[in-house]
Amino acid sequence: MKCSILFSAIILPIALTAQHNYGVSPEFPYGQANPKASKQIKDFEPMIGVCNCKSTVRKKDQSWGTPINMTWTFKYIMNGMAIQDETIKEDGGHSGSIRQFIADSSKWYVHYYSSKAPTTILPVWEGVKKDEKIILYKNQVAPNGTKGYYRLTFYDMSKTGYKWIGEWVDVSEKIVYPTWKISCAKIK
């Protein structure tokens, strides 16, 4: 019994600490990329930290709505093996995603959740970084029944900020209908 208690008191905390070398810490408030992760873990590196953003959604009359202020925070989680993001919007809506790169398929999988549209099954986008853009897709049929995708694109990524756009596209991606856009400036 004494040996078991000693093991639990000394060895277990050391083992748990070693499993979190790349997580959030005072020195790295947004965690770090784990060197054992796929190299793609750094695709989102320009977003790591906090940005002030303007989120604009297309209205039912097809015009663009008034931009809403929000913060968008990205950090490494799961000991630097995945990325989590969270938005906090001035209109009271909040959302987030868990982003994992799966080496077997060579794709990112993004699981999205929102305070305005809670769901029992999280929608999933998948995609890759290509030509300095991260492009993610989810099957989505248009209101008229046309098959297509909802495409999310991160672009103009730098140490000072990035842009994001959500668009419905047909299967050939010749028809492109933007519905949501976000522009972000890094603050931390």
Strand order of the largest sheet: 1-2-3-4-5-6-7-8-9-10
The number of E-state strands comes to: 10
Which regions have little confidence, pLDDT < 50, spanning 5+ residues? 1-12
Percentage of residues in helical conformation? under 10%
Helix count equals: 1
* Beta-strand share of residues: over 45%
- What's the name of the CATH homologous superfamily? Calycin beta-barrel core domain
- Largest sheet geometry: 10 strands, antiparallel, barrel
Rg (CA only)? 19 Å
- Assign the CATH topology: Lipocalin
Structural class: mainly beta
From the spread of the alpha carbons, the general shape counts as globular
Q: What is the CATH class name?
A: Mainly Beta
The overall pLDDT, averaged over residues, is: 90
Classify the oligomer: single chain
Give the domain tally. Answer: 1
N→C terminal distance: 49 Å
Task: Quickly describe the structure.
The protein is mainly β.
Q: What is the strand and helix layout of this fold?
A:
Elements: H1 2-18, E1 49-57, E2 68-77, E3 82-89, E4 94-102, E5 107-114, E6 124-130, E7 133-139, E8 148-158, E9 161-170, E10 176-186
Antiparallel strand pairs: 1-2, 1-10, 2-3, 3-4, 4-5, 5-6, 6-7, 7-8, 8-9, 9-10
